[in-house]
Amino acid sequence: MDDNKYNQNKIRNFCIIAHIDHGKSTLADRMLEMTGTIEKRKMKEQVLDTMGLERERGITIKMAPVRMIYHPNGMVNSLQLTNDSQVSNVKSQPLLNLKQEFVLNLIDTPGHVDFGYEVSRSLAAVEGAVLLVDATKGVQAQTLYNFEQAQKQGLKIISAVNKIDLPNARPQETKEEMASLVGCDIEDIFEISGKTGEGVDKLLEAICAQLPTPKGNSEKPLRALIFDSKYDSYKGVIAYVRLVDGRVKPGDKIFMMAGKAQTDVLEVGYFKPGFVKSDGLGAGEIGYIATGLKDLSKVRVGDTITNFQSPSSNLQTPNIEPLPGYTEPQPVVFASFYPKDADAFESLRDSLSKLKLNDSSLFFEPESSETMGRGFRCGFLGMLHMDIVRERLLREFNTDPLATIPSVVYQIKTVKGYEQLVYRPSQLPDSSQITEIREPFVSVEIIANDNHSGAIMKLLESARGSYKNMEYLSVQKVLITYDVPLSEIIIDFYDKLKSATQGYASLSYKIKGFVVSDLERLDILVAGEKVDALTMIVPREAAHQRGKFIVERLRELIPKQMFMVALQAAIGSKIIARESIAAMKKDVTGHLYGGDRSRKMKLWKKQKEGKERMKKEGRVEIPSDVFLNLFKKE
């Protein structure tokens, strides 16, 4: 914060929200170009997607804040944007009315339902949102969800239709859908192209003109909301903050109200989009604070940073009201992570702790299994979230844990009247000890073309879903709502949905609550030994089908051994499905030439006895990729 330039009335804090792949990051690129925030020679596609994983998959995983300086009447380093998306420098235009300088703090957000917590934290740090919709696809499921979230936060919403440069764009039809959703006039919706830059200048001007200035008072005691964080080996935990009140500068003593930790500020600054040092931050601004703290648990997302009073205050901060913070996200998918080497347990713990600092929706706690050893039970917001966490552990920490089959949490009522939660299927007691099992249900919303509605409803009913509503959003687009068990959604439902609709449907879901269901535990035995990691809870009527599928897939995935391996699916003591992996063949008589056959008979008998002994004493090691590929299509 430069006191000579700091003007709270000229700050605009906003985020871009949209369904996945509607062009949020590309629009952010054009804004960075048109404001001169990033030099042309350093510009690349999706510049705010800094994670290699984001760039490879073409999706945003982490929110990304950036500070831009914008002159509505003349741009710094004017750019000529051509229709073929190539950007070329032209002679700089003179800056008109230099007093009209705005600070635009943008937060680019993910679009996938699994990263909704990233979006909700972004919305709490800003006053406005650009709601973006792809002109070729129209309103989709996550558009609805993000719009509702922004409304709950009371944000000013500016609507825009993106990708109008594409030949199959339907801007007018899309604007009609958006106007119906948002409740605004069609004329108020902007038509833009994040790729070519068409219409982006008008959108930037609208952001300056329509979004409210941030509230807060720089003269009041410091109150800063932590909306994200990361760990630096030199600077400790770096908190990403939105200052609501007060000021902060290097050397100030600050206090984490929930973490009960005090420290001296090492550095403050802005995101441009990398860290850029500043003399200080003032009310209404978005930036970072390097805390120097090495204890990761002391700096929590959603906590309030304030001034440290004095040692005599006994780490209390009287008369300062903490900021509302965030509702802790509830994991919906659980899986256990085990190190491949027992000695790597502490290393896995350290990796998960550092990852959680940058992904606060990740949950984990230690656990142990008879067959797998010590590990961690982890909770995720969805299957993509779980997949991303595993990939980040491998890339960022060189840790590749063995992951069990994902499951959901169940509620049970025992014959003694106790109620408890079951996070691992192997923990489910025998059916004779249970009077009731409840499983989580979700309200699933699917938006698709009406000619696919029959296939979608058939798919939802096969997933034990119950019909709730069908609503036409336009002449051809329909919104279908069903209540479905979460366990039916988490593994391969989305792949089936894409197959049923040729990839044109979009899905969003919300947790509804627990419903009594007829379920039982399905155990899998490999070579006579029960494998906890393969145990699952299934509907009673589907138990035989699921058991048969699992043992057939295991026969394909588990490598052959020197002895025959029996694969069995069991409910209680009853075996309901069985397959066998044939033993590897070894020619023990190959070195013999002719002669007495009794010599060969002795060798064959010895080999048979050896295999029988191995079958009794041997243990089958299950490769880690078996658990990952069990439900994947070939």
Structural account:
The protein folds into 5 domains: 8-210, P-loop containing nucleotide triphosphate hydrolases (Rossmann fold), CATH 3.40.50.300; 223-313, Translation factors (Elongation Factor Tu (Ef-tu), domain 3); 333-405, Elongation Factor G (Translational Gtpase), domain 3 (Alpha-Beta Plaits), CATH 3.30.70; 411-517, Alpha-Beta Plaits; 542-568 and 578-629, no CATH class. The protein is 24% helix and 31% strand. It is built from 14 helices and 33 strands. A hairpin with a 2-residue loop joins β32 and β33.
Layout: helices, strands, pairs:
Blueprint: E1 11-17, H1 24-34, H2 52-57, E2 64-70, E3 79-81, E4 87-89, E5 102-108, H3 116-123, E6 128-134, H4 141-152, E7 156-162, H5 171-182, E8 190-191, H6 200-210, E9 223-232, E10 236-245, E11 247-248, E12 253-256, E13 261-264, E14 267-271, E15 275-278, E16 281-282, E17 286-290, E18 304-307, E19 333-338, H7 345-358, E20 363-369, E21 373-380, H8 383-397, E22 402-403, E23 410-414, E24 419-422, E25 434-449, H9 453-462, E26 466-472, E27 477-485, H10 486-489, H11 493-501, E28 506-516, E29 519-526, E30 529-530, E31 536-539, H12 543-557, E32 565-571, E33 574-581, H13 597-617, H14 624-629
Parallel strand pairs: 1-5, 1-6, 6-7, 7-8
Antiparallel strand pairs: 2-5, 3-4, 9-10, 9-18, 10-17, 11-16, 12-13, 12-18, 14-15, 14-17, 19-21, 19-22, 20-21, 23-24, 23-25, 25-27, 25-28, 26-27, 29-30, 29-31, 29-32, 32-33
